Amino acid sequence: MSGLFARFNSFKRINITLHHLRMSNHTDAEQEVLLERKGCAGVITLNRPKNLNALNLNMIRQIYPQLKTWEQDPETFLIIIKGTGAKAFCAGGDIIEIVKGNQKISQNFFREEYMLNNAIGSCQKPYVAFIHGITMGGGVGVSIHGHFRVATEKSLFAMPETAIGLFPDVGGGYFLPRLQGKLGYLLALTGFRLKGRDVYTAGIATHFVDSEKLGMLEEDLLALKSPSKENIADVLETYHTKSKIDQGKSFVLEEHMDKINSWFSANTVEQIIENLQRDGSSFALEQLKVINKMSPTSLKIALRQLIEGSSKTLQEVLTMEYRLSQACMRGHDFHEGVRAVLIDKDQSPKWKPATLKEVTDEDLNNFFKSLGSNDLKF
């Protein structure tokens, strides 16, 4: 149990946002994200270190137009995104803001967040994310879709949404099923955490750099003269090759990958659970224990999201995920999950429906239904 509670507790810590949250006035909002032209690059700095740089609507509304402007600017050759402080790149979307807000806020937040995810995915300029420290949920959304993601020994990646009655969004339906084997399915359903070099080995990051060298790496990138994407890749590769921390370390899930590929190739959550039970190894039972804590509705949504997303474009996935996000806002489990994990912190969500069996195909189909004129449009 302790591992599981550690997982819930750390997710709690990520949302210390609760204590710090206030509706920011305009001057605060200006400072929540820094947008600067430096050398050959546009630099985005997520600047809410006390909140682990959690992403809110104000920040999204500043980053999106600036990204579009830099993309068109002939003097900007590169876009860098990073977080302030040593703890986090970005611990996720500011969930409390969404829950405390009205329906309009949750509509706008997800719509504009996913539009930003897509803008990063289609950005014509090389985009480099320094995913140093905690990188979860919304933080993954503003990094993974870019050309380059640089992890350090302090990187901590997870998609923990099934624990709060949500699903691994921000394009999770696109990037998770494209990871090696069925790794993405494990990450989606259990919220399994990857640390340090494993974030690179898993394919979440494109490069690994020792954190003490991150400042120098940024300076070297900014100093490039009219660089091409290849020039940028060369600098990253040089630093990656020189990084020594955990160099020979094998992937944390290496010995389990064959089993993961087999367990998670099932088409239903029930079958995955049966596979884990039948295996009976301590690793299998550990994953089972975690899965059994999650929202049954979220588990079923997430599995179908990844299966469908495996053959969709990023835009098609984000359109699907927007439908899911709005259905979750209307439903019970998201509000209950946030209450139990982030607000009251009793860590005992009462899911409705409480069992997988009670989540019918009809229920599931309703989550995936088109929103007609309210669908996400790019």
Sequence of secondary-structure elements: HHHEEHEEHHEEHEEHHEHEHHHHHHHHH
Please describe the biggest sheet, giving its number of strands, its sense, and whether it closes into a barrel. 6 strands, mixed
Mean pLDDT: 93
Number of spatially distinct domains = 1
The CA-CA distance between the termini, in Å, is 44 Å
Structure summary, number of beta strands: 10
Q: In CATH, what is the homologous superfamily?
A: 2-enoyl-CoA Hydratase, Chain A, domain 1
Rg to the nearest angstrom? Answer: 20 Å
> Given the structure, what is the number of helices?
19
CATH topology: 2-enoyl-CoA Hydratase, Chain A, domain 1
**Which structural class is indicated by helix and strand composition?**
alpha/beta
For the biggest β-sheet, the strand order reads 1-2-3-5-7-10
Question: What is the percent of helical residues?
Answer: 40-55%
Strand content: 5-15%
- Give the C-level CATH assignment: Alpha Beta
| Poorly predicted tracts of residues | 1-8, 10-27
Gross morphology: globular
SSE arrangement:
Layout: H1 2-14, H2 17-20, H3 26-32, E1 33-38, E2 41-46, H4 57-72, E3 78-83, E4 88-90, H5 95-100, H6 103-121, E5 127-131, E6 134-136, H7 138-141, E7 148-151, E8 156-158, H8 172-175, H9 183-190, E9 194-195, H10 197-201, E10 207-208, H11 214-222, H12 229-242, H13 257-263, H14 269-279, H15 282-291, H16 296-309, H17 314-330, H18 333-343, H19 361-367
Parallel strand pairs: 2-3, 3-5, 4-6, 5-7, 6-8, 7-10
Antiparallel strand pairs: 1-2, 8-9
Helix pairs in contact: 4-6, 6-17, 9-16, 14-15, 16-17
